[in-house]
Amino acid sequence: MSDTDMPRLLEPGKRDGRDPNALSFREARPASICEVASWPDRLEAVANELSKSCGVNLPKGPGGFTAGGGKRLCWLAFGRFLVISEDATTTAALKERISTDDGSVVDLGHARYGVRIEGEKAAAVLNKAVAIDLDIAAFPAGALAQAPIHHIPVLIMRLDDARFDVFAPSSLAQAFVDWLEDAAQEFGYHIGAPGGLS
């Protein structure tokens, strides 16, 4: 998707709070996002095709993601996957490769708004609303969780010790950004230019 396709809710260059260098936020704008669901008896076929098409191994199970080659393969729940990609053709390619006899592919590119949260206090700011232990020992790199933030259903992905990507429904993105900036006041933050998955 292009920059003109999605609203710009985070204002690049903005600095606020006690220490503006404590946290950084930026819009995370992959080129495509799709949800893939397998029919109950076709999970193995769909999972194998996803791994092959994305060029990455499957996560060990629900609640994790793997990444490589500009793609993330996320296992959300039994029979439900999310593919986030820097390649704008990924969703269309998966629609061709996954038979409707095996499952379905739904384009979510315009339905999700991503934010990269980075800094030593990244987990702390999320834990103001998320009742999940985000300590690195309990929620390591490659872990994901679906949780409500300020009554907004979001997907939280841990990239490493100090970086998370959070995807919210586009229709509720403004409410999520408002919450995030307010929650981060205690620590301070600055906003960078939009970017992709790297």
UniProtKB/TrEMBL annotation:
Location of region: Disordered: 1-22
Composition skew (Basic and acidic residues), residue ranges: 1-19
Domain of life: Bacteria
Protein name (database record): Sarcosine oxidase subunit gamma
